[in-house]
């Protein structure tokens, strides 16, 4: 039977069509190849790039070719011709030794590129004008293609292209904290992407899009499972599933790694011990490594959380972290695998400042790790707070490969409900001067390996990806995944340029849109610090969930999980004395940094309460008392969220309805939570300062007890 539609229904349908056309659910991320609207530019690009010539047919080159076709069809509305010989206006994709190159690029230039770098250059080959994308390897070509597409997306192609790019870090990794039951620890965008019950036989198309997205920003490593690892991940049946994923990811240069539990030999192998010096344990891991590499020849290696937050480790057997890491490294060495051993360790002793513990545990081990071990260090000494000083381990272990661990998922930063562009947080850490080799020895330089003989370098980001349709929950949370990739490729990239590219690729090239959105993004992290943890406050979130305020939390499973442990507010003042007369954490830094942090006069005010217990009446640089200054920050935070809202509300006409509305709703939620944060903290800390909220500021609507009872879910 043919369905009959009423006139009214058809009318509504017609009205809805433009809306549907503008719909965008965010699935395409920054690979959003929508047609260039500027007619002149469209004509220019369509003429300049109308065909391509490719040598080789590996899976990686096929991926490059497909991406090019996809981008052309979306951005230019054209289908590029595949050529048998080079003609004018074509794109040439060729690796180093292809004869077609006619010596365009010198051997020296190729040497600089290494295994993953690429060149994009406007050249003449046999008197034909073309754009050459070349590299030593196929993956270099794929990276080059993504870069080239980015130039079209962001409308930044000049007439003469002369681009050379090489990654500054070897391992550029996502750490998934995905559990085998599909849940994600600290994941706020749905469940795990990995459908373990369907693997190895069924391949979700999404795995390919995941790999594409990672390759597009140069991410070349994925640790599939939670660092709180379930030993089952190393069973035969899981390894077969993982092989399927590795096969899907391989063309995109994405290697698979696994988080392993130190007691796997006991749990899976039935051994009585997991002592790293025990020969049966050593044999067990060597056999396991062989088994893995037989299935996955390019397997990356292991990530290990040991003797941390209840996880087993070598110290359970009287051995050191180096003993544990080296035993695993030895098992992986014949296969060229690596161990990423986390430095995130602390005990529950209330007497030893938690901030000291990672440094005290690892610094003495400098030089003891095998060459295929990287020590993976969180950016700050506690745990992914909205602001922390850089970890003093950066620069302190010159004979060890050190890699950076950032968090992309917003555990302490409002989950995927708050707009927080984390690139500025990453950048702040990377730009911090360790003074390890005198002024200018930035954390970026340290992790690039500039001061050590160790050759392995890396950066990891704890993933914010889940199976929600737009991958990351908040449309802007995608920018944090993107930023991690960009900074892992080059830790000296500016957040400003990352934001610029991301906005153009994801939303629009319209200047009227880019300027306000970029401002929102670049200010958003400081805004969050203001309404959550200004002036160096930290870890005052709700217990366990880490969502919403909880400065009053004073009972916890261990003393250093209490908020009161961190803020130390009393009738005199607030803050943790970590100076030379306090816990002495300042002395873990090189002298110039130590002295700056140690003095209340020179300590940056944004870290003041991290390092000092400061009187409520202390005069700040602004001339205000500490109390008034703190109030100012909390109120500013809320005001700035409101400013984000009003900026966003003016941008409706620039983008699709779907993402516009989603961001609008989330900003409303963020504003409400920022008010809760502000009111909670100001009212709670006021019980110690006994000082009034400065006159002109709006008063909290509810009493403190209301906020203490409130749970933000
Ligand atoms: C994976 C914090 C988080 C934990 C996380 C841990 C870690 O403590 O709250 O969920 O565990 O860091 O990084 O290992």
TrEMBL record:
<keyword id="KW-0378">Hydrolase</keyword>
<dbReference type="InterPro" id="IPR029018">
    <property type="entry name" value="Hex-like_dom2"/>
</dbReference>
<dbReference type="InterPro" id="IPR011099">
    <property type="entry name" value="Glyco_hydro_67_C"/>
</dbReference>
<protein>
    <recommendedName>
        <fullName>Xylan alpha-1,2-glucuronidase</fullName>
        <ecNumber>3.2.1.131</ecNumber>
    </recommendedName>
</protein>
<dbReference type="Pfam" id="PF07477">
    <property type="entry name" value="Glyco_hydro_67C"/>
</dbReference>
<keyword id="KW-0624">Polysaccharide degradation</keyword>
<feature type="active site" description="Proton acceptor">
    <location>
        <position position="411"/>
    </location>
</feature>
<keyword id="KW-0858">Xylan degradation</keyword>
<feature type="domain" description="Glycosyl hydrolase family 67 catalytic">
    <location>
        <begin position="152"/>
        <end position="471"/>
    </location>
</feature>
<dbReference type="GO" id="GO:0046559">
    <property type="term" value="F:alpha-glucuronidase activity"/>
</dbReference>
<dbReference type="GO" id="GO:0005576">
    <property type="term" value="C:extracellular region"/>
</dbReference>
<dbReference type="InterPro" id="IPR017853">
    <property type="entry name" value="GH"/>
</dbReference>
<dbReference type="GO" id="GO:0033939">
    <property type="term" value="F:xylan alpha-1,2-glucuronosidase activity"/>
</dbReference>
<comment type="similarity">
    <text>Belongs to the glycosyl hydrolase 67 family.</text>
</comment>
<comment type="subunit">
    <text>Homodimer.</text>
</comment>
<dbReference type="Pfam" id="PF03648">
    <property type="entry name" value="Glyco_hydro_67N"/>
</dbReference>
<keyword id="KW-0119">Carbohydrate metabolism</keyword>
<feature type="active site" description="Proton donor">
    <location>
        <position position="309"/>
    </location>
</feature>
<dbReference type="Pfam" id="PF07488">
    <property type="entry name" value="Glyco_hydro_67M"/>
</dbReference>
<dbReference type="InterPro" id="IPR011395">
    <property type="entry name" value="Glyco_hydro_67_aGlcAse"/>
</dbReference>
<feature type="domain" description="Alpha glucuronidase N-terminal">
    <location>
        <begin position="29"/>
        <end position="148"/>
    </location>
</feature>
<dbReference type="InterPro" id="IPR037054">
    <property type="entry name" value="A-glucoronidase_C_sf"/>
</dbReference>
<dbReference type="InterPro" id="IPR011100">
    <property type="entry name" value="Glyco_hydro_67_cat"/>
</dbReference>
<dbReference type="GO" id="GO:2000886">
    <property type="term" value="P:glucuronoxylan catabolic process"/>
</dbReference>
<dbReference type="InterPro" id="IPR005154">
    <property type="entry name" value="Glyco_hydro_67_aGlcAse_N"/>
</dbReference>
<feature type="active site" description="Proton acceptor">
    <location>
        <position position="383"/>
    </location>
</feature>
<feature type="domain" description="Glycosyl hydrolase family 67 C-terminal">
    <location>
        <begin position="472"/>
        <end position="695"/>
    </location>
</feature>
<keyword id="KW-0326">Glycosidase</keyword>
């Amino acid at each position: 039977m043919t369905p009959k539609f009423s006139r009214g229904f058809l009318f509504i349908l017609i009205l809805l069509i433009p809306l549907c056309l503008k719909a965008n659910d965010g699935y395409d991320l920054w690979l959003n190849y929508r047609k260039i609207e500027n007619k002149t530019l469209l004509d220019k690009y369509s003429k300049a790039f109308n065909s391509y010539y490719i040598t080789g047919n590996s899976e990686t080159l096929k991926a490059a070719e497909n991406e090019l076709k996809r981008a052309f069809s979306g951005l230019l509305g054209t289908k590029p011709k595949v050529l048998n010989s080079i003609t004018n206006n074509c794109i040439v994709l060729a690796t180093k030794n292809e004869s077609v190159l006619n010596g365009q690029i010198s051997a020296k230039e190729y040497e600089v590129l290494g295994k993953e770098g690429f060149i994009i250059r406007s050249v003449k080959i046999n008197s034909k004008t073309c754009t050459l994308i070349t590299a030593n390897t196929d993956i270099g070509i794929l990276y080059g293609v993504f870069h080239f597409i980015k130039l079209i997306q962001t409308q930044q192609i000049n007439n003469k292209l002369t681009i050379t790019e090489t990654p500054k870090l070897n391992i550029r990794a996502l750490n998934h904290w995905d559990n085998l039951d599909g849940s994600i620890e600290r994941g706020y965008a749905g469940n795990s992407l990995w459908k373990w019950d369907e693997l190895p036989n069924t391949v979700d198309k999404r795995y390919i899009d995941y790999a594409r997205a990672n390759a597009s920003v140069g991410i070349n490593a994925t640790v599939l499972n939670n660092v709180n690892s379930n030993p089952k991940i190393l069973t035969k049946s899981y390894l077969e599933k993982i092989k399927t994923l590795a096969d899907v990811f391989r063309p995109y240069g994405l290697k698979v790694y696994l988080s392993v539990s130190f007691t796997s030999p006991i749990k899976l192998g039935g051994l009585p011990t997991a002592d790293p010096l025990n020969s049966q344990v050593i044999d067990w891991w060597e056999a396991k490594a062989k088994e893995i590499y037989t299935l996955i020849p390019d397997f990356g290696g292991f990530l290990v959380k040991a003797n941390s937050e209840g996880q087993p480790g070598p110290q359970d057997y009287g051995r050191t972290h180096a003993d544990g890491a080296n035993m695993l490294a030895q098992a992986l060495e014949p296969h060229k695998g690596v161990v990423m051993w986390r430095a995130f360790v602390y005990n529950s002793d209330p007497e030893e400042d938690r901030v000291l513990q990672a440094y005290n545990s690892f610094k003495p081990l400098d030089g003891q790790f095998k060459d295929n071990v990287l020590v993976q260090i969180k950016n700050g000494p506690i745990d992914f707070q909205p602001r922390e000083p850089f970890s003093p381990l950066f620069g302190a272990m010159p004979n060890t490969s050190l890699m950076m661990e950032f968090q992309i998922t917003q555990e302490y930063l409002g989950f995927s409900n708050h707009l927080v562009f984390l690139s500025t947080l990453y950048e702040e850490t990377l730009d911090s001067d360790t003074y390890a080799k005198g002024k200018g020895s930035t954390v970026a330089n340290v992790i690039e390996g500039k001061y050590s003989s160790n050759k392995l370098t890396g950066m990891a980001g704890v993933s914010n990806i889940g199976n929600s349709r737009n991958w990351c929950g908040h449309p802007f949370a995608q920018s944090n995944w993107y930023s991690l990739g960009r900074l892992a490729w080059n830790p000296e990239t500016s957040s400003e340029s990352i934001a610029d590219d991301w906005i153009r690729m994801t939303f629009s090239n319209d200047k009227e849109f880019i300027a306000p959105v970029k401002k929102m993004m670049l200010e958003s992290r400081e805004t969050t610090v203001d309404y959550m943890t200004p002036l160096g406050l930290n870890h005052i979130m709700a217990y366990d969930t880490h969502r919403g305020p909880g400065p009053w939390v004073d009972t916890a499973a261990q003393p250093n999980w209490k908020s009161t442990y961190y803020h130390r507010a009393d009738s005199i003042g607030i803050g943790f004395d970590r100076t030379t007369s306090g816990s002495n954490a300042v002395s873990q830094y090189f002298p110039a940094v130590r002295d700056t942090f140690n003095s209340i006069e020179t300590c940056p005010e944004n870290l003041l309460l991290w390092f000092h217990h400061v009187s409520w009446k202390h005069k700040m640089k602004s001339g205000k008392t500490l109390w008034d200054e703190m109030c100012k920050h909390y109120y500013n935070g809320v005001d700035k969220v409101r400013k984000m809202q009003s900026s966003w509300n003016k941008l409706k006409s620039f983008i699709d309805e779907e993402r516009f509305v989603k961001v609008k709703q989330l900003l409303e939620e963020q504003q409400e939570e920022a008010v809760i944060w502000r009111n909670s903290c100001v009212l709670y800390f006021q019980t110690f300062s006994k000082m009034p909220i400065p006159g002109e500021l709006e008063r909290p609507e509810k009493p403190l007890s209301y906020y203490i009872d409130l749970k933000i879910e």
